[in-house]
Amino acid sequence: MKIKPNIGILNALIRITLGLTILAWSTSKLVKQPWRDSFLFAALCGAMKVAEGIVRYCPVTALYERCQEMMPKTSAEADSMDGMEGLTNLDGNQGVPYNPT
What is the value of pTM for the model shown? Predict the structure, then answer.
């Protein structure tokens, strides 16, 4: 499995900044309340975001892109009417029928 960067520079910088912020907040909370597992989980999530920003690879983004490749392609013509094909006005033009309410 090849791991190549799948996020941009700006996205990576945002991930590093927010990851360090979450990591600093959670470790400061862990100092006062070391028995709370939620702060440890937040610290791990913050560290993961910092690592994603440094290597510029996000596994969730890669999974999303792989799922999008596996989805069948639909034509734009079939989706253009949004299920309203066959509806005509009284004067014969296609569109939404007249509703007096």
Answer: 0.66
